[in-house]
Amino acid sequence: MTSTPTPALPLLDQYGRVASDLRVSLTDRCNLRCSYCMPAEGLDWLPGPEILNDDEVVRLIEIAVSRLGVQEVRFTGGEPLIRRGFVDIVRRTAQLTPRPQISVTTNGIGLDKVAPALAAAGLDRVNVSLDTVRPETFRAITRRGRLDDVMRGLGGAAAAGLTPVKVNAVLLRGHNDDQAAELLHWCIGHGYELRFIEQMPLDAQHGWSRAEMITADEILTALEAEFDLAAHPDERGSAPAELFVVDGGPATVGVIGSVTRPFCGDCDRVRLTADGQVRNCLFAREESDLRQALRVGAPDDEIADLWRVAMWSKRPGHGIDDESFLQPARPMSAIGG
Ligand code: SAM
Ligand code: SF4
Questions:
Q1: pTM exceeds 0.90 for this model
Q2: 101, part of any domain
């Protein structure tokens, strides 16, 4: 099945971008129901046989790392911590050559229990999603009363040395848009690095509206009412977050203006869904089926070629502001955020 890898030919697109950051969705299921992501009743989950098994996931990551120049692997979902075998997938990823940087984006529920095993397996970093520190707002946004679990998860990650612990937050008008500064105070107090993300049109209910979205400008105005923010001196590179030093440092805060300040020209990401489809962009409307190739016994070099072809057609930008914009068929939870 495996042959000696040819030197890595990167995942290049026709605009000259190279994808070296792989987002791997391990499940489309979740134990929360964030309103900007999933409907209250959940979704029609992917059938079990369509989901890549652990060996298939690790084989695709190995192809990406050894043949396609991928240097970073981030596990996501759905909620990646509910995937059975997650620790083992991390361990096997950490044993690959060259060893990629390994991180996870999680809602944090149960992270306190599994963080030591994840750290021992080779996980480097975590991003925990937390939009509010008020229990009633948390319940309203996520439709579950599990704020304490998330906070325990954050503490467990820090205790296990998965630092710096990062927090991702989405602001929703009328829910938590008055809590930006409060969340930043809380994160700084706990030593967590906060990033705000503009809400994107990726919810399953298609409820996103440009007018309702809280913009990066609004987020910064709200923060500047309580903090002194200075542009961070480091090069931004392909990082989506604009970083600011808070009150002279060392604390920082990031703002990811995916919609109003797009960074598509510097994008270095590629996504693999839980059912083995490559997506060259969060907003892509096409996918390339690697699962089928895997399951009919294609050799690694053929799968690597399919992957390169999939990347070549990546569009120059997400086009959210174009009149012709169409939301992708899959929601964020099924693509892998
Ligand atoms: N369940 C995990 C979590 O919440 O961190 C991982 C998957 S979740 C889809 C990944 C990230 O996407 C989270 O930080 C979440 O807040 C963000 N997200 C989900 N829907 C979004 C949307 N419509 N716009 C912006 N970010 C969104
Ligand atoms: Fe679940 Fe993450 Fe989506 Fe919230 S954002 S419903 S935690 S997948």
A1: yes
A2: yes
